[in-house]
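Please review this one:
***
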Amino acid sequence: MPREIEFPDPLQIPVFDNHTHLDISREGEPIDVAAALREAARVGVTRVMQIGCDLPSARLTIGLVDEHPQILGGVALHPNDAPRLAASGRIAAAYDEIEEYAAHPRVRVVGETGLDFFRTGPEGRGVQEESFRWHIDLAKRLGKTLQIHDRDAHDDVLRVLDSERAPEKVVLHCFSGDVRFARECVDRGYHLSFAGPITFKSSQELRDALAVTPLDRVLVETDAPYLTPHPFRGATNAPVMLPLTVRRAAAVLGVSVPELCHQVNQTGERLYGSW
């Protein structure tokens, strides 16, 4: 994390980062994962869910979960990568490799998978949907939690989940919907994971969605290195910044920060098991 960014005040009850990318650096050098974990632990973020969403990052994720007891993992093919892999004739081999990694005992998530209608145009959406359906089936076959990437595709995400009979455990990562969509997800038994945008002045609609989400369906994440919370928006994000999001989420929900942390930890155990 850049030195000009101050560490947040430590949380009283340690919590975990539900979705981060320790393989993606915006500074030009690989991330020192051990140092990032030490920094996060100083502020009460003692565990992370590392997400590998292409083949190189999935391979790296397997190494990280083996090396660091603070890390559990998720693997998948990102929705925006699926059309490119299909066009090059490599998607079947990629599925085989992801399935192998997803069976690792410390990989507890299939994801991030889903639909992205912002970066992928109509010509690639059929392949995206096929890939999403494949990952849903994989999560069900392996008994893993499904983490979903949804950008500008709320209704279609629900349509596919409904038609495939979604897994028992589903998380909408970096939730970006409104109150209506939040309620539709909650009604289906899904969990919503909120990131730095809930701290942005312009994101009242997102805070309204959080406010109607039951406490036991709420998770918190960084999606680092992206979406750094206010007042450091635009800088490189890292798990150490999660307390800023946690505190804003607690205020929106009308609960104490320790109460939110306690519930997030309980929810994490239910979704992912113990670290």
